[in-house]
Amino acid sequence: MSPAEVFFGYKIVPMSHTILKDHLHRELRIDCYVKARGDLRECAKLKDKKTEEENEQLHPEIDVNPKMSAKFIVPYQITRVLDNDRYCVADLPEHQVSQKPFTAILAPERIKLWKRFEVRQ
């Protein structure tokens, strides 16, 4: 007598020997589906690789040296003067780079003079 029969009162059959699992394997032919799914995945991988190669030919990436990239966001305008020597800066509408306008709060050491405008009163 096995320990399971002593504790539970019946013999425990492993899942691999169940009638249900054998029936499902016969009826659904799981192995065929697994093979077909593997074939579809391989086909998708090949298409992805082909598309990636085409995109690289059409749009080659140019390595940008960090020394050549812009160090500052210019031009911008100071929109407000805040306490503790801080300034609100924003993009000029005609020099906006992205769809969303740039706004930030900066300290004076992070601001560089671009052009000096005389305020007419």
Structural key phrases:
2 domains; 3-stranded antiparallel β-sheet; 121 residues; alpha+beta; single chain
> If strands are numbered along the chain, what order do they take across the biggest sheet?
1-2-3
| Low-pLDDT residue intervals, each spanning 5 or more residues | none
Based on helices, strands and strand pairing, what is the structural class? alpha+beta
Helices, by number, come to 3
Main β-sheet description? 3 strands, antiparallel
Cα radius of gyration in angstroms: 34 Å
Average pLDDT rating: 78
Question: What do these coordinates show?
Answer:
The protein has 121 residues and is an alpha+beta fold. The protein has 2 domains: 15-58; 63-121, no CATH class. Helices cover 37% and strands 14% of the residues. The protein has 3 helices and 3 strands; from the N terminus they run αααβββ. The protein has a 3-stranded antiparallel β-sheet, with no helix packed on it. A hairpin with a 3-residue loop joins strand 1 and strand 2. It is elongated, with a radius of gyration of 34 Å. The chain starts with a helix and ends in a 15-residue tail after the last strand. The model has no long low-confidence stretch (mean pLDDT 78).
